[in-house]
Amino acid sequence: METKINYEAPEYYENRELSWLKFDSRVLSEAKDKSIPLLERLKFISITSSNLDEFFMVRVASLKDMVHANYKKRDIAGMTASEQLAAVNQATRGLVEAQYNTYMRSLIPLLKKEGICILDAHEDLTEEQAQFADRYFMESVYPVLTPMAVDASRPFPLIRNKTLNIAALLANKKSKNKETVFATVQVPSVLSRLVRIPSNKGNITFILLEQIIERNIEHLFSNYKVLCAYPYRIMRNADLTIDEDETPDLLKEIQNKLKMRQWGEVIRLEVEEKMDKKLLRFLRTELKVAEEDIFHIAGPIDLTFLMKMYGIDGCDELRNTPYTPKAVPEIGQGENIFEAIRKGDIFLHHPYETFDPVVDFIRQASVDPDVLAIKQTLYRVSGNSPIISSLAQAAENGKQVTVLVELKARFDEEHNIVWAKKLEQAGCHVIYGLVGLKTHSKIALVVRREEEGIRRYVHLGTGNYNDSTAKLYTDCGIFTCKEAIGEDATAVFNMLSGYSEPRSWNELVLAPYWLRDKFLGLIRREMRYAKEGKEAHIIAKMNSLCDREIIAALYEASANGVKIDLIVRGICCLKVGIPKVSENITVRSIVGNFLEHSRIFYFTNGGDPEIYMGSADWMPRNLDRRVEIIFPLLDETLKEKALHILETELADNVKARILGADGNYEKIDKRGKTLVNSQELFCREAEEALPKPSGISRERCFIPEEQHGK
Amino acid sequence: MASHVFAAIYIGSYEVSMKVFELSVKKRIHEIDYIRYRLDLGRDVYQTGTMGYETVNSLCDILSSFSHIMSGYCVEAYEVYTSAVFRDSANGLFVVNQILLRTGFSVKVISNSEYRFLSYKSVAGRMPFEKMIETSAAVVDVGGSGIQITLFREGSLITTQHMDIGTVRLRELLHADGQSLKLYEMEIQEYIHKKLEVFYSLYSGTRVNYVIIMSDYCEALMKSMEKKEEENVVKADKFIRYVEKLQKKTVEEISHELNLSNDNDPLIIPSILLFRSLVQILDADKVWAPGVNINDGIAYDYAWRNQLIKGTHDFEADIISTAQNLSKRFHCFSPHIEALSKLSAKIFDTMKKIHGLNKRHRLLLEVATILHDCGKYVSIANSARCTYEIIMASEIMGLSHLEREIVAMTVLYHTIPLVDYEELSDRIDQDSYLVIAKLSAILCVANALDQSHRQKFQDIRISLKGKELIITVESLEDISLEQALFEAKTSYFENVFSKKPVLKEKRVYSYH
To answer: The pTM is what?
Structure first.
């Protein structure tokens, strides 16, 4: 008899932090890719850097907390927190090294070739440039600097999280005493890190702000002699929020421990490679950093400034030609959007297709006299969001507007409170999230009173209602006025407003209560079909896959003959190629110019395919601790479009990387194959789908106005 | 606007709910929104006797938020009903007033019979209903305290009975301390069976085609049984098999399987046991869970009253057929009753301008006529009192409590002299007193015309002439008995209407 396989065995799983680091290094590989324009490559360096910062503040901080709390539970891959920390530390060092290698050894020389120079040592300045830098320092920088020295009467100052600082060792000029004094000064974050300085004709030269300060540091400590000065940066476990992916019992445990501990432990110290040993030792003791948490950086600290570099004027030939999202063919220019939706469900694929219809949906609703109510969930919105102003406008026009604003959206909290207040002032009914749950679902409902009665129009999406990110993130959405979905949408908002859940749902599937079971049920159904000998195929596209139960179900399905193709951009705790477990599973990751963000789930269902889209990844937090919506595509044309996206991405051999049995992601061998770059293909297709201007009657003529006042 | 938007709000003992409907001839009653909010009014009322400050506050808050939602749909009309929980609360009346002052909602407190009728209307308003009752059907409204069984045969209502085997009561009654679930289930089963068997032997006797169960749980049960079935109809044996399968599971498992929002619903076990017994004992062929509740009934009632939709079911026919069946039960349904019904109706119609009563009163008169002899089954000497008690103890689906009182008193006071209003003022209002006087006077005269119970008159013509109500009869037989007694019975009529009934005879001679 065959032994039963335990699909939840830790050896079948990859640790999620290590998997994430692999994702970040995939982003870094884009920076190494010679076929990509230079400034685009710089952008990827910057993204790797900011990604890593967030990773440290959230994930590494969380792991540190676990260690402090003496939390012994093992993760999905059977690792304890301290084992994970050690592994993460090692992997991060590798990543950072590769990052700086790429930046310093390939990109800087290439930039130089293009006549762009980023000086990271003030010693390299020419006479003229030095003069400029000194003047800039005295006029703009000096007034905002706050140097702080440490001695018997002045304790070590509070160094703020993620800020760049310069540490210096000073010697008193007058005193005979040989003792050195430590001083630190923050590189002001109000000023641009990149300072453009004069250079030869045709060239562009920048210097980093900290270099200008370093050069003039004597001015800050006039009674002292500056022995040495180096930049450094710390990362603190500052926010004290525990990452919600951890188990609830952990949360309690940590909260209890935390009360006793001083806040804001330093979890990473970055210093310049050549920093003075004495200075480093001082920093280390004062900041209480462990040796393993010190990163010696071979280049400028904090590469996020390269994003600014990406946006410099001119040099367009060093960037991709910007892509303008194309119109959605089903919605004519200036057409009433509700009329368009009544003709049939509409599929949207951003950023290939424009996000405008979604903005228009709310805008038109806000002024449409037949519209009674608008209800929407908002998670992250753009700075000057047209959706927010339309919602406010609608409320002022007497529509009933209900908005659920998720205040708990990480890093966006303050931003969200400001405009939530604005909406409230305009007369909207604002719900500030739900206790204990983050509302991650993306749904908008417009109730309209028409000739035939009340009709509900619904937009459902995979991405946030954010018109800026919609130009960079690939997301899908649908418009529909199908009654079954309209009823469900109403029920969603009733539920979010604190009323009882509906007795049952028509089409929508919601987390945290129903979604996990739904997905498990769908996977198991494919497995039953496979056992019956029918074709069984799952294609799922998402950002992250790290839910143990789902992965175990996928393993079991694969073991029973279901073909499973996964397109997972980020974390993937599933391992491929395990004999008898995951031989039928492929995993690919697409990292391209646009951030892959849509979630699409395809199930063959014995020949009657079902496709779902939605806001949830296959992660515990999405399935258990968030309000998420997954919706089925009901119309054949919509299903075809979604399937086309999946199939094209599965065919991608330019930007896709395939996960191997060794846990590494490798690009596909392109020899003898037609190149398929899915993102580029989608761009072309969106262009081609536009209605062609009809060839006939192109003659120019005036159109007389027939109706007065129209 | 082709459609009319209506909101039906019901304040129940554990939940406040609102359904928003579009009412139109084309779509009939179309539900747009259903909002429920859990508020345990019952706990307050049944523990302390009154609704507490906090509870009233939350109730008003919920109602205000409902009014916000209503304005979002541009609701044209609404009705707010409540029942037992307000009736049982010592401060119910004050709370009604508080709600009016704070939220502007005027809440109507309805009696149990009105509640039952409304909830019955919600089913009867559904399309498949008429087809189901064509053969035979039992509508069972499952509530917390009791169940209401309404039996139909060949399209007409046979009887409606209340039985105190509601789900909450079952749970309380057999609250098993340390008993095994199995034993507990057997006890409940036996208890339900005993109660239902009485009903079965008295009324049903033969199997019914459909059992129509009105309960949220039953709907959930159906949903998880028949994923695709639109109408929620299943074969009885399949239903029983499914319940048996469920019974083997734990409460958590059942709740999960039925997708209930509460993981550990204490009412689920008594509910499914009750459903199973109902289906078994009524020996049903099919089970239907229409998935409607009191809110739908409120909307149907409103739409029907305002002629926004066409009614598919004749509720007045239900009332008449219940009365007839009741009359048969007491062995007093006879040709005499039919003759009397015609007679009293004729007098009522002729007197229309004099009495100023409406169609509904005519129906009450008919019911009173049908039931006027029931008491004789119990006691011939004391028949009037007994009839009164029988009517008051019987449920007639469609009659409100007050209407039942009017019918019973009409019957009572057509035999014994009407007492002063003051003596009845604790039971009826003045208007109803007048109605009783008028109806009983008419019934009294009509009865006098068929004193022999032999329907001697062939043809009766009734007309008003001056201060007289002239009743011209044709008869083959000697009517001296009627003639002699008539005079004695008419003074009451004269008192009430200021018209004197006069009996004129037109003798028809037989040629044989």
So the answer is: 0.81
